[in-house]
Description:
The structure is a single chain. With 352 residues, the protein is α+β, with helices and mostly antiparallel strands. The protein folds into two domains: 34-229, Distorted Sandwich (Acetylcholine Binding Protein, Chain: A), CATH 2.70.170.10; 232-350, Neurotransmitter-gated ion-channel transmembrane domain (Methane Monooxygenase Hydroxylase, Chain G, domain 1). The chain has helices spanning 2-31, 88-97, 182-185, 231-248, 257-280, 290-315, 327-350; strands spanning 36-51, 56-68, 83-87, 104-106, 109-123, 127-139, 151-160, 168-177, 189-202, 216-228. The strands form two sheets. It has a six-stranded mixed β-sheet. Helix 6 runs antiparallel to helix 7. The radius of gyration is 34 Å and the shape is elongated. The chain starts with a helix and ends with a helix.
Amino acid sequence: MKLPNNILYIFTLLLSVHLFANQEQNLDTSTKKEPLEVSVNLRINKIYNINSVNETYQIDGYFMSSWKNEDAISFLKDTTANSIIFENDKARELINSELWVPAFELVNVQGSRERPNIRIEIYSDGTIEFEERFFATCSSDMNFKKFPFDSQTYKVMIEPFSYESSKIVFKNPKLFLERDHKDYLGEDWKFVHSDARIVTKKYKYMDDNINSKKNLYSRVIFEVKAKRLSGYYEWQVLFPLLIIILASFSIFWIKEFGSQIGVGFTLMLTVVAFNFYSASILPKLPYNTFIEYVIIVGYIFIFLGILAVILNHRINGEENQEHKIPLLKHFRYAFPLAYTIIMIVLYVSLIV
């Protein structure tokens, strides 16, 4: 009786080893499976409501993605057509019931994007095309160091919501824009160039192991670079500010000390108003912009002008008629020359 039990034990052991080996083999096969490749396109209709203070902008566009799933061929079994289309409610019912459609999120969106229309087309070879019309408020870091001669890059960043790069990867990203760029950028911006690229994003806070291949996501970045048309700021802000600074040098041509001080402080307050204006159209930045440097230089020269006339009055006052030093004659030319040199250096170093 012991011999059959031993044979049964050995048989059971061999069967377990065989099943475990098959599981290991299936696991290896699954890990070697290639990720699903998804082609992505973006067509931008308009970039509008550009808010420099909040560093946001709104996008009106179409997002299109396509991939292959041979299981979807079954949806065409009752038709002889090459493809079948589902729109809006029908498409949403299809996603909620039978068809798997990966969820893609706009990484740099603020709030939620509106999707008034969606469309799914399934082809006879198993290709699935998904398209959505969307409206979204996006944000990206803006660099205002050259403001108002700056250029900004408006981005739309998209990645899978649930699947890492081992499961889904993007390929062949394409960005389509209207030929007349004024239609979607407005009159304040000039189109420079556009780009679409794919990167791999690792979320380090989700994994302590830096070298781990987990938490890697495929991300596509669509970019539109535009240069600000600075005409408004040149004529409505910088030119009046330049006139005010040059007018402050008139105190060196005025003989009465009281009038010199009055003109100096009046123009100082005028420059303060320009400072409030620049603060209202830009966010709170850890650095100075070009226009702020111009205002700061204006502050300094008006202040130095006031000190200069006080010094002149102290040295060449009524009590010192015999030992006059013609300081004002030197200041009349030294101040405008120094201001011109500083402004040229500032423009070349920051703008050119």
